[in-house]
Every structure is written in C-alpha cells, then in structure tokens.
Amino acid sequence: MCSAEARGQTAKHNLIMLLKELNIFKSFVKQRPPFDIVIDGLNVANTTPKATHSETLLAVVLELEQQGLNILVLGRKHMLQPSRNWDRQNMNKIKQKAHCFFTENISEDDPFLLYAALHSGVHCNFLSRDLMRDHKACLPDSATRRLFFKWQRGHQLVISHYVPGKRVRFQRISAYDTIVQTSGSSWHIPYDENRGDRATYEVPQKWLCLTQEH
C-alpha cells in the first residue's frame, strides 16, 4: 500500500472513530440535566505554570461548584494517567464535583464543547481561552459567522486571574450587546482607546454617546 493510500485509510479510520465517539457523547449529554457551564479541561489546566495541570483544573471546578453550577469537564484520556501534572487524587475529586467526559487523545474536543453548550440552552456558558477561529472560518456565510460571534461573546468565560491557593476569578460576560445602538435621536457606539486586536470573546468597555441637535 502506498503512503498516500495509507494516509487516506488512516484518515478514514479516524473519522469513523470520531463519529462513533460523538454519538456516545450525544447520549452522555442527553442522559444528564442541562449543564450551566462546560469546561475545556486541557485548555483551562494550562492556565498557569505555577501549579500542576490537575491542581489548576480542580481549583476552577471547586470555584464553580461553590456557585451551585452543574458542571461538565471535557478532557482527553491521557489526563487519567497518573503523572506529575495529572495527580490521581485531584482527578478523582474533579470527577466527584463535575460530570466528566474524556475523549480519545487524538480527538478534537471543540466540537464536543460546542455541542454540549448549545444543547444545554441559552443559560449555559463555556470556559476556554480557545478563540474558535477555525470553527468560525468553516461557517458557510458572513451572517452565520456574525451569529456565532455574537453567541460566543455572550457565553464564553475566561480566567482573568488565578494564583494557586487563592480564588479563581473569571472575566465577566457583558449583559448587553456591544453593537451600535440607537434610541430616538441618540446613538451609542462601543469603542476602544489605544487598543490592539481583541480576542473574539472580548468586547469594548467604553461607549461614545452622540445626540442629534435639532
């Protein structure tokens, strides 16, 4: 078998395994109450080099559990193998405090995260530093991409501050839509001062208010 054919067979096999895994995950989600927050476990665990991965992830889960949230942690199976970064005791505590689903190590976890968050309803947020650029680029048209962007801004949380041993703090999600708005003869325009490119989950924090003179 030539190398190109072998690569094609491998890609086909991986796709079949991914589809099977997605079907298992869909059943997993349907058998549980709607989640309040979905955590990108591997992404969140890499937040700081000052703590092991499992220590960071456990701190985040405990902080959210204290808020009374129904939590889903998405991870990969290698996280269940005891190591310096993945302490078995920490992982067992995480599994006690949150629903957990661990994909194959070769799987892309973003589709699982997006499915769980969307399936759980408009109240559900997700926690990740991933900008989801690849997923937006795959959407068929600009209107759909804008819709996804708007949903992302309203539902994505990121860790704004974490020092081991102290409380985890999250960036607050804006309660209003940061687009140009008008009311009567007044216009409200969101803007940044001396700011470079923002991440897609970030929104302008200042507003320019204009009123038409009669």
UniProtKB/TrEMBL annotation:
Its main location: mitochondrion. Coiled coil: none annotated. Keywords: Hydrolase, Metal-binding, Mitochondrion, Transit peptide, Zinc. Belongs to the PPR family. P subfamily. CDD domains: PIN_PRORP. This is Mitochondrial ribonuclease P catalytic subunit. Residues 20-209 form the PRORP domain. Pfam families: PRORP. It is found in: Mitochondrion. Signal peptide: none annotated.
